[in-house]
Amino acid sequence: MAITEEQWELASLCLLLGLLRSALSIPEDALPGLLEVLEGEANGQEG
Predict the structure, then answer these.
(1) CA 1 – CA 13 distance, rounded (Å)
(2) Residue 9: which pLDDT band, with cuts at 50, 70 and 90?
(3) Are 34 and 26 in contact (CB under 8 A)?
(4) Residue 46's pLDDT is what?
(5) Which residue in 8, 22, 26, 44 has a CA-CA distance of 20 to 30 Å to 36?
(6) CA distance 9 to 11
(7) H-helix segments, 1-47
(8) SS3 state at 16
């Protein structure tokens, strides 16, 4: 809904909340791998 109404700050907060919930639901030892993948994507590298 936030995207369709172009409320970009709210949309970004919703995305961050979803990412946080996902990170909290995965096993603790998987988190470093997830962060590496996300860092690679942020730097324009493919996993």
Answers:
(1) 13
(2) very high
(3) yes
(4) 60
(5) 8
(6) 5
(7) 8-25, 31-42
(8) helix
